[in-house]
Fold this protein.
Amino acid sequence: MLRAARGGGGVRLALLARGGGTGHALGQSPAPGRGPLQRGLQRRLLQQAPPPAAPAAVGRWLLACSGAVAGAVVLGGVTRLTESGLSMVDWHLVKEMKPPRTQQEWEAEFQKYQQFPEFKILNHDMTLTEFKFIWYMEYSHRMWGRVVGLAYILPAAYFWQKGWLSRPMKGCVLALCGLVCFQGLLGWYMVKSGLEEKPDSYDIPRVSQYRLAAHLGSALILYSASLWTGLSLLLPQHKLPETHQLIRLRQYAHGTTALIFLTALSGAFVAGLDAGLVYNSFPKMGERWIPDDLLAFSPVLKNIFENPTTVQFDHRILGITSVTAVTALYLFSQKIPLPRRARMAITSLLAVAWLQVGLGISTLLLYVPTPLAATHQSGSLALLSMALWFMSELRRVPK
């Protein structure tokens, strides 16, 4: 029994679970009966041996979840671009899942919207038909968020009950489920900032760029963690020799991925301040390389997060730095013998990086048309995905 528990293979474990004692596992006659101690040990052995297909199933689930999060990010970007995010002025987890149906219900919903700054300052001549469009945009985003939550929580409970999750994976799954719930609360906290009355202010009502960045940042973390974990479970690791060049390449890949993440996050400040609508020229900003109002706010640090000119300038610099870093990473990777899959990953990363730059410049020059801007926002996710894929190909083989 002890030999089976400590070092027995799958065959002996299966025989032991079916009722045979130690002698049966070794080809001898089975014992006439089983005691409570023996049955308890058999149950523990079975619990410690998850089905071979479990890691693959968990990996596919996490990749599907990352895709759902990507859809929520894209839909949230379109909601922001169409200025629909403040159309639903209440937040109820279950009650608001049922949209208005009758004319009276729609009029009541519209009347609630009319009590808030966006209608009073920006949309005071809006019709009920126009309101329905922005309401359904925000409704779709919120409902998609609920689908994402269920996509994490329900399968996690199933895999946990089946015993398919190792102890480290249980911690990871708990963190992901907690983050998706936090993401929903953060979304409402963000919307709330755009519904607040601001006396003596006639600026266009918008959500706080700080809360928007936090909302996007947590979504990107959720997406990245799910994608990384899914790829780690599904893609077999390459047994690469730990040379000095490979270690440097891995370090550069990590740094480039962090830079791409920061660039995507800076886009939240661009969106939150409508900074894409100032200085619609490239490569110069107007007639200058460095605009006069770059540091117009006081104190100076305030410009980085609240001055639209500075926010756009920073996003430009980060974008140019990111594509330069990706290009340098690609050139450096050509000096190292890499597996075919890793070569595909770095080539895809380079292609998406330059495509993203083209989309960003086009969006700026054309005064931020919604379809092109939404594609540019989606491109940031694609670029981050390629970087995470390449990092996954370079990960160390555990000793």
The chain has a mean pLDDT of 87. The chain is about 70% helix and 0% strand. The CA atoms of residues 106 and 319 lie 43 Å apart. The longest helix spans residues 128-162.
